[in-house]
Amino acid sequence: MLNEFKDFIAKGNVMDMAVGIIVGAAFTAIVKSMVDDLINPIIGLFTGGIDFTNKYVILAGAVPEGASLEAAREAGASVFALGSFVMAVINFLIIAFVVFMLVRYVNKVKAATEKPEEPAPEAPKGPSELDVLMEIRDKLAK
Question: Where does 1-142 show beta strands of DSSP type E?
Fold first, then answer.
């Protein structure tokens, strides 16, 4: 059973998946920083300095005016965190686009390294089956 487990772990697919998960976790941190540090400020410029991450609607409970989303949650209020959702959607779209670009690039590189299939050598031209049968018929007729 231990040998079977070693074989399973040593297979390329499991190792590829593990590497993908680790790289994906690191990539998520990069994308989060890009959204928080680069995209949010740009969106804030167009929306008059509004920070989407702290946009919420109080459904139940009391929260001081102008409190952050974190403060509202700590106060025990039930909040509809619209800003967090918008930022999650933006994060997803950025990640999906970057993954698409990476897969596209990898596919181009893979296609460039593959040798194009050479066409099968053409069979030498000779008489067709009908020509051979007609020749046999003619010889038999003589």
Answer: 57-60, 78-80
Q: What is the fold, at CATH topology level, of the domain defined by 2-119?
A: 1.10.1200
Provide the token pair at 141.
């007729």
Sign for the CA dihedral angle at 59, 64, 68, 74 comes to negative
**Buried b / exposed e along 114-136 (16+ C-beta atoms within 10 A):** eeeeeeeeeeeeeeeeeeeeeee
* In the chain, where the domains are located: 2-119
Residue 84 contacts residue 53 (beta carbons within 8 Å): yes
Please write the tens of the pLDDT for every residue from 47-73.
776 666 777 777 777 777 777 777 777
